[in-house]
Amino acid sequence: MRISELKERRIIRRATRNFDSEGKRIYNEFEYDFPYNPTHKGNETERLFAKIIDLIPFFLIIRFGFHELMIVSLFFSIVCVLIFGSLSETLWGTTLGKKIFRLKVLNDNGNYPNILKSLQRNLLSFANFTPVFTDFVPGPNDHFNDPSTNISLSMHLNNKICKTFIVKESKIPEIKKLLSEKKLA
Questions:
Q1: What pLDDT is recorded for position 133?
Q2: 174-185 pLDDT, tens digit each
Q3: Percentage of the chain with pLDDT > 70?
Q4: How far apart are alpha carbons 115 and 122 in whole angstroms?
Q5: In whole angstroms, what is the distance from residue 80 CA to residue 88 CA?
Q6: Side-chain half-sphere CA neighbours of 143 within 13 A
């Protein structure tokens, strides 16, 4: 069994037009199987900051240790993050930045990715900076906010292609349990 094949059963309650004898609305219940989502809300921001945290030490070492130009330091620090990130994700499932946010990288089987898969996802991470636009409309009693458009970055392309998942460390036991239950069934 794979993480991408896991399902989560949910009960959806929908209101009907009918009421019971006490005047309470009657609801219909429907059961659905949804794809299991191992990620968490707001992980795009955490992942972006984790990538920046991974870049900073290399940038500082190259910039001030080797006295290189800023653009040269940035280029070489990106290369270092690609290589070091791939190695550390393969060995420990995390990088320095991800460790601060308690994030781990898992492949579709629930293990740390191998070096080639990790290198592939790190190379594809530069294509992740695709903006996602969402409209914000304040509620009827919200007098202080104006309607606006929010921009966030979609950080899922590399994981979708590589079939890897960025999960909180605390969620790993749940994922392992779900995977072992499905193997037994």
A1: 74
A2: 999 999 987 766
A3: 94
A4: 10
A5: 12
A6: 1
